[in-house]
Amino acid sequence: MKSDVQRWEAKYLGAELAPTLRVDSLLARYIDTQADQSRALDVAAGTCHAAVYLALQGFQVTALDCSAAGLALGQRLAKREGVAIEICEFDLDESVLPNGPWSVVCCLRYLNRSLFVQMAKGLAPGGVLILKTFNVHHLAKTPSFSPEYVLQPGELASAFLMLETIELADGDDPQENTSWIVARRPR
Fold first, then answer.
1. For residue 130, is pLDDT > 90?
2. Residue 119 domain-assigned (yes or no)
């Protein structure tokens, strides 16, 4: 069986640069929640759409991903959009997150529960976490998806008790196949 790193690398090696910047609506809606636009961390950045969006908003962004090919596409996207991002090839199953403090930690469509505490602790006082990924209801739509990589109802609320919740959708709606949390580290 291919490792996750090999699987993602193979996916991005065959990918083309997206014709437009794709911004997750949750990120777009809440990024102005953060007044201190200094440092942002994009965890499991893929082709860096969130990282580039954050850079366009004035953040100094570090994008982490296990795929060099995905990050290379992200660098091309950043160049096309006229911003700079720092990329870091990083196996998130084997490493700890870079030291903060981060004004924003963003993680979209990736689940590694062992990083939850690091994400929260890496935030600067007043820093914002934006995390969104698939929940258990996704398995009804995509039965081949690994149950290991979906959130259970209530999981985000209990994982981030140390943060002040701004918005939470925690898997209670069977029609919604993603869960998310936007939360702030107390000042």
1. yes
2. yes
